[in-house]
């Protein structure tokens, strides 16, 4: 993220001490991948040659779907999630949420993973009966080996961008017959885009917080300590949305920005309910459009999301 000179008049807010502070707009830069470009190319080349079916484009479906991410609020919203499970709503698990659900006797209908790192294999070690698996083409080969005897579909992110070597590989292999899944830089965002492409339009979303827990500072509802971007060095304190203050990692702030932009791009074609008390749920409930971050010098900057 980099500061830019505002073209519109500056805004002010009152901080916790009752002092007036100035809000400066800032902009987001390009998302940083958590692996090198060369690994993305290697993984995509491998997965394409497995000749797995691509995630299909589906007709419109009016039934609601439940998306379960790994955010800390899962532990606070489990009763709501269990109620939807008993109503036989299809459940989609993202990353390690699959294991979390199985530990609570809930079998997801689908599981989705997009991260390119091999550590993600831990999310797949327990087979889920009658579950469809969706893996991004950039996922590590070990993940595809783990699910080789399960119903598995491949989807594409083209993380390296337009006119990249990755895009050329996909075009050459599929003869242009592939689709980039819309969304943002996290599986929480891309899952909505992927499921929208499958025909779903009504979503109940759990564990998509985009902030740290106000109780204990946790990020996930389960232990996951191999993300360096979850460390204190990547934490933004003094982040505001409407009338509430949040603490976020940098990737969570970006995700909140991408969430608003993606929902706007769907032009009202999807409807969603976000459960919990996190940043994205607060955005939905209040319609707030700004996150405010306190700088080291005591001033604040505004991130329009």
Q: What percentage of residues falls in helices of 4 or more residues?
A: 25-40%
How much strand?
15-25%
Radius of gyration: 20 Å
Query: Helix tally?
Result: 8
| First and last CA, distance | 13 Å
Low-confidence stretches: 1-10, 23-31
Label the overall shape. Answer: globular
Average pLDDT reading: 85
Topology, number of strands: 14
Order of helices and strands: EEEHEHEHEEHEHHEEEHEHEE
Count of structural domains: 1
Largest sheet data: 7 strands, mixed
Counting helices, strands and paired strands, the structural category is alpha/beta
Give an account of the 3D structure:
- With 305 residues, the chain is α/β, with parallel strands linked by helices.
- It has one domain.
- 27% of the residues lie in helices and 22% in strands.
- The strands form 2 sheets. Strands 1, 2, 3, 10, 11, 13 and 14 form a 7-stranded mixed beta sheet that branches.
- The longest helix has 16 residues, at 250-265.
- The two termini are 13 Å apart.
- The relative contact order is 0.17.
Give the helix/strand layout.
Elements: E1 2-3, E2 11-14, E3 20-27, H1 37-48, E4 65-68, H2 74-86, E5 91-94, H3 97-102, E6 110-113, E7 132-136, H4 141-146, E8 152-155, H5 165-174, H6 187-197, E9 202-206, E10 235-241, E11 244-249, H7 250-265, E12 271-274, H8 279-286, E13 290-294, E14 300-304
Parallel strand pairs: 3-14, 4-5, 4-9, 5-6, 6-7, 7-8, 9-12
Antiparallel strand pairs: 1-3, 2-3, 10-11, 10-13, 13-14
Helix pairs in contact: 1-5
